[in-house]
Amino acid sequence: MRHILIASAVIATLSACSNGEKTARYLIDPPVTGERLANRLGTTELKDVSLPDYANAGEVSWQTADGAVRSNTKELWADNPQRAFTQTLARTISDISGATVIGEPWPLAEPPRRTLEVRVETALAEANGIYRLSGRYFVGDSGAGGSNQARSFNIAVPMGTTEPTPAIVARAQSQAIAQLARQIAVLGGPGNSVRTSSSAPRMDDIFSQPLPPLDG
Question: Which domains, from first to last, does the chain contain?
Answer without folding.
Answer: 37-199 (3.40.50.10610)
